[in-house]
Design goal:
Strand order of the largest sheet: 4-3-5-7-6
Oligomer: single chain
Structural class: mainly alpha
Largest sheet: 5 strands, mixed
Number of strands: 7
Order of helices and strands: HHEEHHHHHHHHHHHHHHHHHEEHEHHEE
Strand content: under 5%
Distance between the termini: 65 Å
Length: 549
Amino acid sequence: MDNKHKIMLSLVLLSGIILRLPYLELMPSWMWDEGVNMNISWNLASGRAQWFTLTYPFIPHPPLFFMISAFLLKLLGNHLIYMRALTALYGVWTVFLLYLVGKEAFDTKTGLFAAFLFAIYPWAIFYNRGAFANNQLMLLTVLTLYLYLRYNKIGKQKWIIYSACTASMAVLTEYTGIALVVSLAILTYKGQRDLIKKIFIILVAPLLLFTVIMLYLMPDAFIHDLLFTLNRFSNAILGLIILLAFISVYRFIPRDKITPLKEKTKLFYLNIARYALFYGGVASEEETIERIGYNLKLAGSILFLLTLYLSLQPLSWQGFYTGLDLYWLGLFGYLVIKPKKTRKQMLAFCVPLFIIIAGFGRLDHMIMPFYPFFALGLALLFKEVYLILTSAFKQTASVRMIVLAFLIIPLAYMGFMDYQTFVEGINPSVPQENMGARLLVSEYVNEQVTPDDLVLADSHFLRFIGARVSVILQAVAYEGQQILYMSGDYGLNRFTFNCSYKKAKIIIIADGYMPWLKENCPQVAEYVSSCKLSRIDSFRVYECGRLGP
C-alpha cells in the first residue's frame, strides 16, 4: 500500500475513533441490555453465574463476552464506561478489518470506501457506543471472513484453521454465531472437501465443551433455558433449516435440469427489459443507444434520490427500531459482483447470517453483525452506479466529478449528522443519560432502605443502591408468570432470594416506562398505584413500605 492509501486509511480510522469515543459514558443514554450485560459480567468477576436474582446458565447469551468484560471490570472497576470503551474499540477494529476484507476480495479502493462507509454509519456508531455483546460478534464475523479470504488467496491451511477458530469464538459470544459455522462449513465443503472434518471439529468443539460443562454444573437450568430460548427463536432456526434443506436438494438436481430453468428465467426478465426499452416498437441502433443512455440516467437519478431521501431521515430513537436506512441498499451490492466465484463466496458467507438474524424480526442491536456487510455491499453498489452513470456520458473529468458529487452528497450530510450527534452532542432526538437524576434517586432511596430490603429498578441501579436490587421482569417471573424473555416456570430454587414485587419496599420507574409497564406488567402497575409516590426528576419512586425478604 502506497503512502496515499496509508494516509487515507489513517483518516478513515481516525473518523471511526472520533465518532465513537467522545461523551462515551453518557451518549447515548444507558440502555436496558447494557445494564443486564454489566450485571452478568460483574457477577462473573465475583465468582457467580448470576443474572440479577436468577442463577444463569449462559443462555440465551453464552459466556465469552462476559468473561472478557468481567476481567475488564475486575481490573478497572464496576463502571459502564469501561465496557462501552471495549465495544467502541471493537467498532474501530471492525473498520480496519472491513478495509482488509474489501482489499482482499476486491481492491484497495473498495476496501477504503467500505471502511469509510462503516466508520460514518450512524446506526453502527450508535450501537458501537453501547455495551452489547453483538459488537464482539460483529468483529469476529468480519475477522472470520477475512481469514477465510486469506486462505482462499494464499492457499495455506493455517488461514482456514484460524478462520474456523474465530468462528467458534463467535458462537461462544452469541448463539447467532452458529450462522458462521454453517457458512464456513459450506465454503469448506465447496472449496476444500478434504479439510471439512478438521474444520467442522474446530467449529463445534468449543460449543460442545461449553455444553458439557454447563450440563455438569447446572443441568436443569441449562436444559430449561435452552428449550425456552429455542422456542422464542423458532423462526430463525426454521429459516436456517430451510436454507440447509434447499442447498441439500439443489446439490442433487441434475445440472441439465437447472441450466434450462436458469436460461428461461433470464430470458423472461430480458424480455421485460426489452419491452420497457423499446415500447414494443422497432428502433434503429442510434435510437437504441440514445434510449439506453436515457434509461441509465433515469435509473441513476432514481437511485440518487432514494439514497438522498434515506440518508436525510432524522437520526432518532424510533429510527433504530422501526425503519430501514440507506445502508440496506448494500444488500443489492452483492448481486453486482462481477467474478462469479467471489460472488458465490460472499453470498455463501452472508446469507446464513442474514437469515438467522432476520428470523428475530428486529432491527435493533441484534442485526449489528450485518452492519459491516451493509457497508461493503453499499460500496460495491456505489461503485457500479458510478461506472454506469459515467459510461452514459463522455468520459471527462468534469462528468466524473459531477457523478461523484451526486453520490457523495448523502454521505456528506450523514457525516455532518454524525458529528453533530456524537461529537457535539446536540441532536435532541438521541437521548443522553441524565446522570444527575440517577444519582439523586439513588441517594434518596439509600436513605430509606437497609441492606436487606428489596428494591426493584431498571438494570443500571444495582451498582448505586445499597440494598437487594432486582428488576421488575424477574419480580413478575418469580410469581410464576412468563414475561418477554423471562420464563414463568423457573421454580423458586433458581432465584437467589425472594424478589417478588409484592415484597419490594421501593419500586423505581422512569416516567417514559409507565405506558410499557401498564401494557406488559399490569399487575405491577396496579400494585404501585397504592404506594406512596415521590417524583425525582424523570423518575417515579414508589415507597410500598414492605420489609425486606
